[in-house]
Each structure stands twice: as structure tokens, then as C-alpha cells.
Specification:
Length: 287
């Protein structure tokens, strides 16, 4: 299978590497033709990098792995070369201005795409690139699931039809990981940390159910699994970003949790869901 991966940050590069190892011919697109390099991880010969979006046209499937803040813009760049491929969204986020999830932006900007899915779960990119066993939830249409199963055969996949629930989990864990990182420094004690963590995740679940998600999704790999990984480890960019803010420093790199928290609050307001903890933490984080 010929696979186009759009977005060459750490996660896009890691997915490209394991897709190539699994037998796919991978074309990895980045705006500058560069990609993330992992120490000690060679680039497979069947993985090529390009800055020419036109090379995505003849791919059998796309993985889109751009940051949430640039997802809509990237889709607009890709619109003219889209050729009916199934698309797997590997970006975890919500648009901060609208509260829209990535699948909703996809349907707005690329309405001709009828087969798409979402990949989400406990995944640190460097470990995936090194071949560490990793599980993920893959939710989507039958054609998208079939493509994902073939492309991502190096991952342990749990398949689902709950696209929106899977997305809310990915967005929510980014926001809660940011909050947990902040509270690892700023909270008054362990009890306080646990209380805020639990109440914040409850608000995410309330939002997810109101948006049409399935409760069991929040108990799976993309829910509790990803939350455990991201909200308990300074290896998580979101957790580390929250720590940096609490210490009065500027977070390094793209911290998706900042955009996720804004997007969740915007979406909750549109759904009439009360999120006092998320709102309070947004004020404390000053984002």
C-alpha cells in the first residue's frame, strides 16, 4: 500500500516509520521537506520525505498528523490533490476558536471525503519509533478501519465506530495533562491534585457524552489509557508544558493542551455543559 503522511513532526515521523516497517511505501509531507529524527532510529528505505503536496494525490490512504492549530489550513492546501482516499486523523485536538473537533473540520473543508477515521491512544512518539509495544483506538468507517489495520499493523489496535468519543478523549487528555503538570507545582497538596484531576476529567466525559460519544470509549485505550500516560509523566509535552507555566517559564515546542483547553471550553459552552474546573484552570494557567 502507498501511504501519504501529512505532517512530519515527532508523531507524524513515528507513524511513518512504523508504517514503513509494516510494509507500506510511505511518502511523508512537511512544509519544509524536513522531518523529526529520533536518536538511534534509522529511516526505512521505503520512507521518503517531500514538501510537494501534489505527491499525495496518488496515495492509497492518508494519515493527517499536523498540529490542531494548523489542521484546517493544511486541509485547504491538500484539497486540490485529494483523490477519494480514506483518511485517518492522527491529530488530537479541538480548534480553539470554534471548539470543532478535527473530524468536523475535515467534513467542512473536505466534504467529499466519506471514509475517515481517528487514531488515538497512549502513544509517546519516540517509543513508537523505537518499536515499543503500543496500543491505540482506531475509530471510523469500515473502509478507514480496513486501511488503518493494514497500515498500522505494528500497533495493537482496538477498533471502534465512536469517532467523536475517541476525539474527545484525545482532546481531553491533552488538556488534563496540561492541568496536571501545572498542579504538580502549584497545587496545595496531593489531595488537591487528585481532586482537580478527577473533576476535570469528569467534565471532559460530560462534554463527550453530550457530543454523542459512548461512555465505554472513555474507559479504553484512548481514554483512561492515554490519560494515564499523559497526565502522570513529565515525558508528556503537555504535562511538561503545565509545569513550565507554573514555574513562570515559556513551554517548549507545540503544547496541544493549551489549544485543547480553549477548544473544550468553547465546545462546552455551545453544548450547554458546565465546566467550572476547566474554566478555573484556564484562568490560573493564563491561556
Amino acid at each position: 500500500m502507498n501511504v501519504g503522511v501529512i505532517g512530519a513532526g515527532a508523531w507524524g515521523t513515528a507513524l511513518s516509520i512504523i508504517s514503513a516497517r509494516g510494509g507500506a511505501n510511505v511518502m511523508l509531507w512537511s512544509y519544509d521537506g524536513e522531518h523529526k529524527v529520533f536518536d538511534g532510529v534509522p529511516t526505512p528505505q521505503n520512507l521518503n520525505v517531500t514538501d510537494d503536496m501534489g505527491k499525495m494525490r496518488d496515495m492509497d490512504a492518508w494519515l493527517i498528523v499536523t498540529p490542531a492549530a494548523y489542521f484546517r489550513e493544511t486541509l485547504r492546501k491538500a484539497r486540490n490533490v485529494y483523490n477519494g482516499q480514506p483518511i485517518i486523523i492522527c491529530t488530537k485536538g479541538a480548534e480553539s476558536s470554534t471548539g470543532q473537533f478535527m473530524s468536523e473540520i475535515l467534513q467542512t473543508e473536505l466534504p467529499e471525503c466519506s471514509d475517515f477515521g481517528v487514531l488515538s491512544g497512549p502513544q509517546f512518539a519516540a517509543e513508537v519509533a523505537r518499536g515499543v509495544p503500543t496500543g491505540s483506538t482506531l475509530a471510523g468507517t469500515t473502509r478507514a478501519l480496513n486501511a488503518g489495520r493494514e497500515i498500522l499493523n505494528k500497533l495493537y489496535l482496538v477498533e471502534s465506530s465512536d469517532v467523536i468519543g475517541t476525539e474527545v478523549c484525545g482532546v481531553g487528555k491533552n488538556a488534563v495533562a496540561l492541568i496536571c503538570g501545572y498542579n504538580s507545582i502549584a497545587a496545595q497538596g496531593e489531595n488537591d491534585r487528585a481532586m482537580i484531576f478527577t473533576r476535570a476529567w469528569n467534565e471532559v466525559v460530560d462534554l463527550g457524552l453530550a457530543a454523542g460519544g459512548n461512555l465505554r470509549t472513555f474507559l479504553g485505550l484512548c481514554g483512561i489509557g492515554d490519560l494515564f500516560l499523559s497526565a502522570t509523566s513529565a515525558t508528556s509535552r503537555n504535562y511538561a508544558g503545565g509545569m513550565a507555566i507554573a514555574q513562570g517559564n515559556t513551554p517548549e515546542g507545540t503544547v496541544e493542551g493549551i489549544f485543547a483547553l480553549r477548544g473544550l471550553i468553547a465546545r462546552a459552552k455551545s453544548l450547554g455543559i458546565n465546566t467550572p474546573v476547566l474554566i478555573e484552570m484556564q484562568t490560573k494557567l493564563n491561556i
